[in-house]
Amino acid sequence: MKKLKCISFDEELELIDVESTFTRGLPNLSIVGLANTAIKESIERIKATLLSCDFNFPARKITINLSPSGIPKRGSHFDLAIAVLILCQNEELDEFFVVGELGLDGSIKSTNELFSLLLFLSTKVKKAKIVVPKSIAIKAAMIPNLEIYALENLNQVLEFFKEKKYEKFKLKQTHPLFENPLILNDEIFIRNKDFTLDFIDVKGQNQAKKACLIAALGMHNVLFEGSPGSGKSMCAKRLVYIMPPQSLNEVLMQNAYMSLNSKDCEFKQMRVFRHPHHTSTRASIFGGGAKNAKIGEVALANGGVLFFDEFPHFSKEVIESLREPLEDCKIHISRVNSKITYETKFAFIAAQNPCPCGNLFSKELTCHCSENEIKKYKTRISSPIMDRIDLYVAMDEVDKNDRASLSSKEMSDMVFEAFVFQKKRGQREFNGKLKDEDLKKFCLLENSAKDTLDLAINRYKFSQRAINKILKVARTCADFTQSESIEKSHILEALSFRVKNEFL
Predict the structure, then answer these.
(1) What are the residue boundaries of the structural domains of the chain, listed by start?
(2) What is the pLDDT at residue 392?
(3) Alpha helices in 104-231 (DSSP H)
(4) Which runs of consecutive H residues, i.e. helices, occur in 26-94?
(5) pLDDT value at position 265?
(6) Orientation angle between helical segments 464-480 and 447-460, nearest 10 degrees
(7) What is the pLDDT, as a whole number, of residue 359?
(8) For 66, which of 144, 175, 182, 414 is 20 to 30 Å away at the CA?
(9) For residue 478, what is the enclosing H or E element?
(10) Comparing C-alpha atoms, which of 222, 236, 281, 260 is closest to residue 343?
(11) Cα–Cα distance measured from residue 367 to residue 354, given in angstroms and rounded to the nearest whole number
(12) In this structure, are residues 259 and 247 in contact, taking their beta carbons and an 8 Å threshold?
């Protein structure tokens, strides 16, 4: 019996032993061990591939066992391991993880989910030796705890396993994105230098730009409210260009989630931006499916921005379902065959008009909405959801005298300096995603700041969640001035961005 290792993912990552035996009997190839349709189909694919490479099948019955047998297995990445066991039936095989799909010409291909499988493998096995398709090798080499060996076709497979030329195929390259990384507190970061969408295009709206700076640095949630054409979407779409550098772990996680969405996402300097339409279903936004738990927009936005334009037009079910991912920074998806938890640490940006017609804030245009229509429109967003918004911005009305102010490059530099100050403090999470127990450690108030906050709490009857939001925003404001403690001016600035309804 010969054995190699592979991986599969159902409810969680499973380490699979791929075993083979050659016994007397009618020539046949069979796979046992709860293999799904994709693996069953690999029988004919492997046969055709090996025959096209002039391989003569032995006159034996070949049985492939995927162990443990009680765990369902899925994915075409088992092809390569099965083919290696057949090709090297008389060879002593060292312990390797082997993954890859076979082409009929003998080439070794990657699959959409392969990168995420490798990432999760690195968390379970230290210094795993893994054979991967060459097309994904450079990306896979960025994952910690893995020794990557890159193969392109079955001829190289024979050279690797039969002639033991391991060093020849061991990957020692570095992905171009990580050639000159930024090192902060022994952690690798990649800074964005792309400013395709520039804040210089946003005329006026200084309060909105300040809110974008705060949201970018602290990963805070923002609600822009204003007339059509005032610049709400422009600000939201430019936010990712000024956000702090991504860590290596964030880049890897972003790619892992994209691969779970059947997308081959390349490493990028810029954080992810997701913009679902208001007609999107709950399953597409939060994940789900009939049997298996599929990843949704809230998880795909992890580490970046999730933008809901025309916020009140989303279904009530979708809006209320935001409570868990915004509060816990996680989402749990449960189905009959799978239960999965995804991280949802993103900056949630919402935009809405002040009324159904959009002219309520206008000094020149007439609002044609009745009080009942405005009230009905506003109440689509419940108080618990509004309580999870860190920053509220009433957009200024567009004026012909408005001028451009800060560019994305200038704003990015401001965020970066404050981010470095934050990291030197020893803080690992963004201010907006701090846990309540960390507030006492990082959100130290001066006496005048504490008195101001106490006065605001007594006057406006803030909830405990709202108080914590104010502290987190004030901490971000203090980081821009590189202040170790939160001062009165920082509390006042944080209070100025609270939802106006709370001040009535």
Answers:
(1) 2-173, 187-418, 434-504
(2) 97
(3) 114-122, 134-140, 154-161, 166-169, 206-218
(4) 37-52, 79-87
(5) 65
(6) 140
(7) 92
(8) 144
(9) helix 464-480
(10) 260
(11) 10
(12) no
- Could you identify the residue written with the tokens 């005298």? 401
Q: Are 226 and 398 in contact (CB under 8 A)?
A: no
Tokens representing 277? 């339409």
Residue whose token pair is 């096209």: 52
Residue segments in the chain with a per-residue pLDDT below the cut of 50? 501-504
Which spans in 192-247 are helix H? Answer: 206-218, 232-238
- Cα–Cα distance, 43 to 33 (Å, whole number): 14
Predicted pLDDT at 439: 93
CATH topology of domain 2-173: Ribosomal Protein S5; domain 2 (3.30.230)
Cβ-contact 137, 148 below 8 angstroms: yes
Tokens for 119?
Answer: 């990432």
The CATH superfamily holding the domain 187-418 is P-loop containing nucleotide triphosphate hydrolases (3.40.50.300)
The reply to whether 187-418 shares the fold of 2-173 is no
Specify the pLDDT at position 469. 96
Tokens encoding 106 = 């003998």
Omega cis (within 30) before 325: no
| Close Cβ partners of 35 (under 8 Å, ≥ 6 residues apart) | 66, 73, 74, 78
Q: Do residues 269 and 313 touch, judged by C-beta distance below 8 A?
A: no
Q: What is the pLDDT of residue 337?
A: 64
CATH topology for the 434-504 domain: Helicase, Ruva Protein; domain 3 (1.10.8)
Q: What does 252-319 look like in DSSP terms, one character per residue?
A: HHHHHHHHHTT--PPP-SSPPEE---TT--HHHHH-B-SSS-B--HHHHTTTSEEEESSGGGS-HHHH
Question: Closest by alpha carbon to 110, among 90, 92, 134, 126?
Answer: 134
> Whole-angstrom Cα distance, residue 34 to residue 55?
28
